[in-house]
Specification:
The chain is built from two helices and ten strands. The chain has 142 residues and is α+β, with helices and mostly antiparallel strands. The strands form three sheets. It has a four-stranded mixed β-sheet with strand order 2-5-4-3, with helices on one face. A four-stranded mixed β-sheet has the order 6-9-8-7, covered by helices on one side. Strands 1-10 form a two-stranded antiparallel sheet.
Length: 142
């Protein structure tokens, strides 16, 4: 039997975005994830995924024929330079600007950038400031 390994946080198990143009989304998210140093977890003819995010066509079995509405997703960045690189990469791969990199008033040290992905979702990369993590992620092996 094959062993699988997932990386998970505590609150969200997964999020699914159902998109109109899978190839446009694949190009956008593959580039963005490479910038954030997040590898794709897998892919098929009508889907791909990375960590907790699953992206599919409306015709995929999991989508049940329905597009999702507009969502806001915020990805963690390791530093401000990664937030800047995320914004540049997203714009170069089909994203539209929705807020240039900069400090936000949400809490001291909050540094984020926002783009609109090919399906109109508001995608953010955020660095919350210097912090110490006990581990880069939670590893789940099954």
């Amino acid at each position: 039997m094959e062993t699988n390994e997932l990386h998970r946080g505590r609150l969200i198990d997964h999020i699914q975005l159902v998109v109109r143009d899978l190839e446009a989304s694949r190009a956008f998210y593959t580039a963005v994830f490479a910038t954030l140093e997040i590898p794709l977890g897998g892919a098929g003819d009508d889907y791909f995924w990375a960590d907790e995010l699953f992206i599919s066509t409306a015709s995929s079995e999991a989508a049940q024929g329905q597009l999702t509405g507009r969502h806001h997703l915020a990805f963690q960045a390791k530093d401000r330079a990664t937030v800047d690189a995320f914004h540049q990469t997203a714009l170069a791969h089909g994203g539209r600007d929705n807020g240039a990199p900069g400090e936000r008033p949400y809490h001291p040290g909050y540094y984020g950038a926002f783009v609109i992905d090919p399906d109109g979702n508001n995608i953010e990369a955020v660095f919350h400031g210097e912090a110490t993590r006990s581990a880069p992620s939670v590893r789940v092996t099954f």
